[in-house]
UniProtKB/TrEMBL annotation:
Biased segments, Polar residues type: 55-71
Record bears the keyword Signal: yes
UniProt signal peptide: 1-18
Name used for this protein in its record: Notum pectinacetylesterase 2
GO molecular function, one term: palmitoleyl hydrolase activity
C-alpha cells in the first residue's frame, strides 16, 4: 500500500474508532432552555463566526466548592457601564451580564468572540450584517449560559456556583482598543474601538457587587475573546490589586491560540476574505489605538508589535497562570487557507497543510503548563453544552480544569506540589484529524447534516480506489476490531 493509502487507512481507523465510540446520537438537537443562551456557537455565515484563523469526574473539585453559597438564578442580567464615555462601536452604551451567587468568592469573567473590523469598508459591512457585534441597541435584558457558563451543576460541575460575568463583544478590536468616537484628532470618527477600556470599566463596576472579596478571578474567552484574555490579563490582575483584591487571577484561553499565516496575499485587502489575520491586525492596531502587553512589546522591534496578538509569541511574557484549550485542527485556522472540510475535496497541498498544522500546534503548546488539545476539527469548546464529553486519554476538560485549580491551590500553600493522577497538560498523541474517539461529528458545510465515514474520507479528497482500499470491507473489519476491543 502506498503512502497515501497508509494515510487513508490510518485516518479510516481513527474515524471508525470515533464513530463507534460516540454511541447512538439523539434524533434531533438537544433541547434548549427558554431564553437567550450565550456562549454556544451556532452555524452561520463565515463573517458570523468568532475569529478567522491565524489568528469528567467531579470528585476532584468537591472540596473546592465554596461553602454556604446559595444556588444562583439561571439568568444573567444586563447592566450598562456607569462610565457612559466607554461605548460600543456605534456609541451605544457598553455593558455586561451578571449572575450573582451570594457567598461565593469565585468569579468567572467571560469575553465573547467575534473577529474584528480594521477599516471603514470592513466596519461598515460588519455594522450592516452583524450589528449585535457593534451595538448594544438590541441586547436582551437577560441571558442564559451554557457549558462553563451554565448554572446547572450537571452541565458545569466546578463553576456552576461562581459569580458569572458575560461581557458582550461590541468593540470589533479583539478587546484591544482604546479609541473613542472623538478620535485622536479634532474631527470625530465614525466608530469607537474601546474593547480594553470596556474590560477595565466592567471590573470597576463589579466592586459594588463584591469582587473585592474574591479569592479566585478567572478571565475566560473564546476565539477573539480568548485573544482578548491574553492581551488583557496582566492589566486585569494589576487593576484588581489596585482595588485591594487579594484574588488569584488566572486565564482560560479557548480557541484563541493561533499561528501566523504563511499564505501571501495582496497588500491592499479591502475585505476579510482577501486579508490575512496578520494584515488585518496590522491595519487594525492603528485604527483601534490597540494596547500591547508591555513585556511582549519589548521583545519585538518597532512595527512588529502585532506579533503579540498570537499566543505562541505572547505566552512566555505573561505572569498570571493560563490554561490553553485548542483544537489541533481548528476550523478557523483552516478557513484562512481556504480549507473547508465537508464542502469539497482537498488538494494534496491542502492535505499536507492540515497535517503540518497539527504538528506545528503541538510543538507550540509543548511548553504551556496547562493545556487541553484534542486532535479534532472544530472551533471553541468551553461554552458547548456537551463540553464534558470531549476527552484526551480518558480525562475530560472539566476534570483537567479541576486538577489545574487544585494544583494552583496546593502551590499557593505548599510550594509546587504535584497532583498525582490528576493531569492538566493533555495533548493528543494521534496524528490525524478526528482520530480522537470523542471528537465532535463533522457537518456538511452546505446542509449542516452529519457526515458519514465515507463522506468524511471523500471530503478529505481521498480516492479510495486509487489508494487500494476496499472501503466496505475495511470499514467493517475495523469496526469489528473496535467493538471487540481488538
Amino acid at each position: 500500500m502506498n503512502s497515501l493509502g497508509r494515510a487513508a487507512f490510518l485516518l479510516l481507523l481513527g474515524v471508525a474508532v470515533s464513530q463507534n465510540s460516540r454511541g447512538p446520537k439523539p434524533s434531533g438537537k438537544a433541547p434548549r432552555k427558554t431564553g437567550t443562551p450565550v456562549g454556544e456557537a451556532a452555524p452561520g455565515r463565515p463573517e458570523d463566526d468568532p475569529l478567522p484563523a491565524q489568528w469528567g469526574s467531579t470528585q476532584v473539585g468537591k472540596d473546592l466548592k465554596t461553602p454556604q453559597t446559595q444556588k444562583p438564578s439561571e439568568d444573567m442580567n444586563l447592566h450598562f457601564l456607569k462610565n457612559a464615555q466607554v461605548t460600543c462601536n456605534d456609541g451605544t452604551a457598553a455593558g455586561f451580564y451578571l449572575r450573582e451567587c451570594k457567598g461565593s468568592k469565585r468569579w468567572l469573567i467571560f469575553l465573547e468572540g467575534g473577529w474584528c473590523c480594521y477599516n471603514k469598508e470592513t466596519c461598515d459591512s460588519r455594522y450592516k450584517n452583524i450589528p449585535r457585534l457593534m451595538s448594544s441597541s438590541e441586547w436582551p435584558q437577560s441571558r442564559k449560559g451554557s457549558g462553563i457558563l451554565s448554572s446547572e451543576a450537571d452541565e458545569n460541575p466546578h463553576w456552576w456556583n461562581a459569580n458569572m460575568v458575560f461581557i458582550p463583544y461590541c468593540s470589533s478590536d479583539v478587546w484591544s482598543g482604546t479609541s473613542s468616537k472623538t478620535g485622536q484628532g479634532k474631527e470625530p470618527v465614525e466608530y469607537a474601538f474601546m474593547g480594553s477600556l470596556i474590560i477595565r470599566e466592567v471590573i470597576k463596576d463589579l466592586v459594588s457587587k463584591g469582587i473585592k472579596q474574591a479569592k479566585v478571578v478567572m478571565l475566560a474567552g473564546t476565539s477573539a475573546g480568548a485573544t482578548g484574555v491574553l492581551l488583557n490579563i496582566e492589566k486585569v490582575s494589576s487593576l484588581l490589586a489596585q482595588l485591594g483584591t487579594e484574588a488569584q487571577v488566572r486565564g482560560l484561553v479557548d480557541s484563541g491560540w493561533f499561528l501566523e499565516s504563511k499564505q501571501a496575499r495582496a497588500q491592499e485587502c479591502p475585505d476579510n476574505a482577501s486579508c490575512t489575520p496578520t494584515d488585518a491586525i496590522k491595519k487594525g492596531l492603528r485604527l483601534w489605538n490597540g494596547i500591547i502587553p508591555e513585556k511582549c512589546r519589548q521583545q519585538f522591534k518597532k512595527g512588529e508589535e502585532w506579533r503579540c496578538f498570537f499566543g505562541p509569541k505572547l505566552y512566555s511574557s505573561l505572569t498570571p497562570p493560563l490554561f490553553v484549550v485548542q483544537w489541533l485542527f481548528d476550523e478557523e485556522q483552516l478557513r484562512v487557507e481556504d480549507i473547508f472540510l465537508g464542502g469539497r475535496p482537498l488538494s494534496e497541498h491542502q492535505w499536507a497543510y492540515i497535517q503540518g498544522l497539527g504538528r506545528e500546534l503541538k510543538s507550540s503548546l509543548r511548553d504551556v503548563t496547562a493545556v487541553f488539545a484534542p486532535s479534532c476539527l472544530s472551533h471553541t469548546l468551553i461554552t458547548k453544552r456537551n463540553w464534558m464529553d470531549f476527552q484526551i486519554k480518558g480525562t475530560s476538560l472539566s476534570r483537567a480544569l479541576q486538577c489545574w485549580d487544585k494544583s494552583l491551590q496546593d502551590a499557593s500553600r505548599n510550594g509546587k506540589a504535584p497532583v498525582k493522577g490528576c493531569p492538566y497538560h493533555l495533548i493528543d498523541s494521534c496524528q490525524w484529524p478526528q482520530c480522537n474517539p470523542t471528537c465532535p461529528a463533522l457537518l456538511d458545510q452546505t446542509t449542516q447534516q452529519e457526515l458519514s465515514l465515507l463522506q468524511v474520507l471523500v471530503s478529505l479528497g481521498l480516492d479510495l480506489q486509487q489508494v487500494g482500499l476496499d472501503l466496505p470491507g475495511e470499514a467493517s473489519h475495523l469496526a469489528g476490531m473496535v467493538s471487540s476491543g481488538g
